[in-house]
Amino acid sequence: MKRLGTALHVVQKRLIVRGEQIDGSEASIPRMNSWVVDQKRTRVGKVFDIFGPILHPYIIVRPIRGLDAAAHVGKKLYVDEA
């Protein structure tokens, strides 16, 4: 489990996450459609898009159906690498 970043806002039913600082390698950039989980490893959604500055990108997470995305605002989210 690798830290993705902190959820900032909900826009059009999608979570905007401020990503952790990238160390410069492509391996640290999350892949599209990777599962995003919370601290308890509960699935939140999938990586939908990545944009913004290279060192601190923003990630759009498409929540799973039926999930209240606003409940995760302000919380740390992670990428499930398994």
Description:
The structure is a single chain. With 82 residues, this protein is mainly beta. The protein is built from no helices and 6 strands. The chain has strands at residues 2-11, 14-19, 35-37, 43-51, 58-63, 76-79. A 6-stranded antiparallel β-barrel has the order 1-2-5-4-3-6. Strand 1 and strand 2 form a beta hairpin. The chain is globular. The N and C termini lie close together (8 Å).
Short description:
By secondary structure, the chain is an all-beta fold. The protein has strands spanning 2-11, 14-19, 35-37, 43-51, 58-63, 76-79.
Mean pLDDT: 90
Helix content: under 10%
Strand percentage lies at over 45%
Largest sheet composition: 6 strands, antiparallel, barrel
